Amino acid sequence: MTHRCVRTAVLLGSLVLAGTVVAAPVTKSKPNLRGTESDVPNQRTFEVEGKAELSRLCADKMRTQLPLSSVPTSNLALNDITVHVEAGYYTVVLPLLNPQGNMHLLYWGADTIEEVTTFIRLMQTKKIKVLKAEAYSEELRRDIAKPLSEEELRVCSTDTITNFLQPCKQCIIVEWVFDGLID
User: How far apart, in whole angstroms, are the C-alpha atoms of residue 65 and residue 161?
Assistant: First the structure.
């Protein structure tokens, strides 16, 4: 009798566990918010691409070291905010009233509609006074008269690379700067 009770308990327990695994939501991957090639797989083989991969790594390094570009919310067209939905994720697009260098619009990615509405509410109520965005895209300029040598890419100094980075027109928001306390 005891063995039957134990077997029944084990079977019921395994059914409950199997049911939770089956009922768990499928994990979804975030869309690439930077607007780069969507065909490129997430796992890259660094050695295969040679100099192109070296330039990408150097550009990524420079973008993280360069100061962010500050855009005051007074320079945003808050009446023209749009929200794009792709694969269950949201991208808030904020056009600039006056272009700031090459920058024409900013965008910010969110996981939920609640995050989107909170962000828009904070923008429209002037709680956020400045948005900071990356001013350069992920790639080096292609119109360079003399391409960078492998040695320049390996050294990857800020002075050398900033002239060769492609300024972004649609820039990703990285930080929010608040004006006082948030309600």
Answer: 11
Q: What is the pLDDT of residues 54-77, one digit of tens each?
A: 877 887 887 778 889 999 999 999
Contact call for residues 87 and 31 (beta carbons, < 8 A): yes
What contacts 88, CB < 8 A, 6 or more positions away?
A: 28
Half-sphere exposure of residue 110: CA atoms within 13 angstroms, side-chain side? 17
Taking only the tens place, the pLDDT of each residue in 103-125 is 999 999 999 999 999 999 999 89
Neighbouring residues of 94: CB distance < 8 A, sequence distance ≥ 6: 76, 77, 78, 81, 105, 106, 107, 108, 123, 131, 173
Listed as own residue / partner, the contacts of 79-86 with beta carbons closer than 8 Å and 24 or more positions apart are 81/120, 81/123, 83/116, 86/31
Cβ proximity of 100 and 108 under 8 Å: no
Domain boundary assignment for the chain:
44-178
How far apart (Å, rounded) are the C-alpha atoms in residues 162 and 165? 5
Element (H, E) at 58: helix 51-65
- Rounded CA separation 139/131 (Å): 23
